Amino acid sequence: MKHILYSQIFIIAFLFTQILNATMIPSDTISFKNKIIPEEILEEARTALSHYPELKEVSIEFKFKSSLSKSFMKAQPKIPTLFASKSKRGYVILMSRVFKVENIQLHIKDIPKEVLIGWLGHELGHIMDYQNRSSANLVLFGIKYFFSQGYIRKAERIADTYAVTHNMKDYILATKEFILSKGDLPEIYKSRIRRLYLSPDEILMLVKEQEGN
Ligand SMILES: [Zn+2]
Q: Which branch of life, at top level (predicted)?
């Protein structure tokens, strides 16, 4: 009798979690242990993640959002987990399906694979940086990032540096090249990228430094 009751509880709990999962995560999104990834970027996200074995146990959700201002992707801690212990902290990489700058629209499906991998690799670089910060430091980070261009520059360089030291140089260069020359993006966006991010030459210098060590 007792074990029948247990199995009923188990079935109910199982169904409940299935319903919960189905309502919370879009059906075209695949959940792994610690990772939630929309199917349309699954391959690229897995390639980028394979460069960061340190993030294997870290909970990261890749999520499409309809309006992201000024950026195509954005990595941030999940607010409800911000004050939890570091091991329980989760992150979300918000992405635009259609990136709109000025009067140009760039659809994610028109972005070459290696460019997308580089872009995701850069965002994972931010998460590596966040992992080294305390909750209070992350709050300060958010404030400074919002108000100071100099701070944005610093943070973006750290993210690129993580990607380069995780053997993603070629992907990062493909992403830069795409943004600065191939992607037909408006000049206003390109100049923002030039101002705040590492240039292809600086990335190559970084690689040289790495090789020298
Ligand atoms: Zn960034």
A: Bacteria
Helix segments in the chain, DSSP class H: 2-24, 42-50, 113-131, 135-147, 149-165, 169-177, 187-196, 200-212
Q: Which residue has the tokens 């992707």?
A: 73
Q: Contact 36/29 with Cβ under 8 angstroms?
A: yes
Residue 51: pLDDT above 90?
A: yes
Residue 114 Cα to ligand 1 midpoint, Å, equals: 17
CA of 74 relative to ligand 1 center, distance in Å = 7
Note the pLDDT tens digit of each residue in 145-204: 999 999 999 999 999 999 999 999 999 999 999 999 876 788 888 998 899 999 999 999
Ligand 1 ion: residues within 5 Å (CB): 156, 159
Q: How far apart are the first and last CA of the chain?
A: 67
Q: Identify whether the C-beta of residue 38 lies closer than 8 Å to the C-beta of residue 28.
A: yes
